[in-house]
Structures are given as C-alpha cells and as structure tokens.
Design a protein that fits this description.
This protein is an alpha/beta fold and 291 residues long. The chain has a single domain, classed as Aldolase class I (TIM Barrel), CATH 3.20.20. Helices cover 46% and strands 13% of the residues. An 8-stranded parallel barrel has the order 1-2-3-4-5-6-7-8, surrounded by 5 helices. Helix 1 crosses helix 2 and helix 3 runs parallel beside helix 4. It is globular, with a radius of gyration of 18 Å.
Amino acid sequence: MISGSIVALVTPMHPDGAVDWEALQRLVSWHVAEGTGAIVAVGTTGESATLDVDEHLAVIKAVISTAAGRIPVVAGTGANSTREAIELTRAAADAGADACLLVTPYYNKPTQEGLFLHHKALSEAVAIPQILYNVPGRTGVDMSNATVARLAGLPNIVGIKDATGNLGRGRELIEMVGDRMAVYSGDDATAHELILMGAKGNISVTANVVPGQMARICAAALKGDAESARRLNTPLEALHRDLFIESNPIPVKWALHEMGLIGNGIRLPLTMLSESCREPVRLALRLAGAL
C-alpha cells in the first residue's frame, strides 16, 4: 500500500510554457532522496488542465522512467468525460504507472449515481489500482461518503484522496471504508491530524518545497506519535496556508523558482504569483527552513 508523504508534483516549464524535462527529472530524483513516499504525476498541481494529451502522457512516462521503481508513481488521469478518463487511465497503465488518481468529473456536476457509475466504468475498464479524488472546492461536485462506501466494494478502487479539509467528515470516512480502502488527506493543513485518525498518508502540495519535512511529519503520524507530528508541522503552518494565497499551483511554482529548483514557466490562464503575494510566500519558506 502506498503511504506517507505523496507529492502532487508540479510540472516545471520554461518561460515559454514548454515542459522543462531536465528540471522534471531533477525534481523526481530529489523527492526520492528526500524520502517522499510516492509521486503523483500530472494532477491539478501538475497543470493537467493545460497539458495536451500527448504532453500529459509524456510527463507521466518521464516521471516513471526517472523514478525507475525506487518509489511508486501515481498518474493523474481523471477527466469530466468518462471515455476520456478511461483512455488516459489505460495509457497510464500501459506506461507502467503503479496507480491512477481520478478526480471527480468537474463542471458538468454529475449526481451521486453518476459519480458511482463513472468510477464503476473506470474500474471495470482498466485493472490498475485506482484512487478516487474528491475536491469539491475545485470541481463543483462533492462525492458523498455514502458514494465512496459503495465504490469501496470494487476490487481495484484502493483509496481516496479527501481534499475537503473537514476532519469530522474524514474521521467518518475512515470509519466507513478504512478496512477496504486507504484514505489519504488532500489538505496539507490538517493532514497530520487525519493520519493520526487512521488515514494512510497525505497527497501534498507542500511536499513540493519541503519533501523531507513532510515525509517526517507523515511518518510520525503513521506511528501514532502525535506530539512529534504536531511539533514538526508547526514551522510549516504558514507554508500550508500561503501556498494557496492564489490558485494552486501558482504559489508553489513561484516558491520552487525562488528556491532555484525550476524556471518561471506556467501556462495561461494561470500567471506567475502576483507581486503583492510574494513576500508572504517568501516569509513562509523562511519559517519552514526552505530558504
């Protein structure tokens, strides 16, 4: 089972928006060295919305190739078209991904029955392990815990990334499905608390900039060491907050650029971090020891 700190990896780009393949390889190797538990390639943080299909699959293949079996690679293959999600998931499986992360279909706002049938179709079409991804603040659709419980009965649906940030709801979800699938936090600010309740890890934006620290926080929480997990998390609280001062992945890409790890490329309609937001992010990086 994939566990611990799982980075939702950025896709580094040159100033003209072209993918920076060398920087991508460096980031993957850095995460391996820092103890990251797994890498999510081309999720929301990886700018999946603006990569074309060929680029999307090329980034997944590059991450798999560079990771070279040292840590698992989870491919982001969700879409708001069930047919498209099946095609992407099948291609990721063929490329050698260890699992796929499947966001709820966005914008068209399916019913709970539609969500169930969408993921059921994916489960039946592609045998790869699949992790559900519920992020209602981003997609405009909220998959209920009851629907997750229905999906937990399908053999290759192995987990869910719960990005609601609602610890009470997360606890209920763990109680409902924790014996059948892994629950992962998708909210950095509350992740260690959800892990202490029984979640298996954190699919993290913050891990992009402080991978070693996030790995240690998750490891402590997985051991049930609440005191250490909370102590290690305290210097990162501003970072958890300010990496969302503008829409993700704008702040985290700027932070990595500020750290000298990637260039300053990002694709429209996203833009580089506003001048007024840079000092708060810079201060948060310093508090976390990343600068």
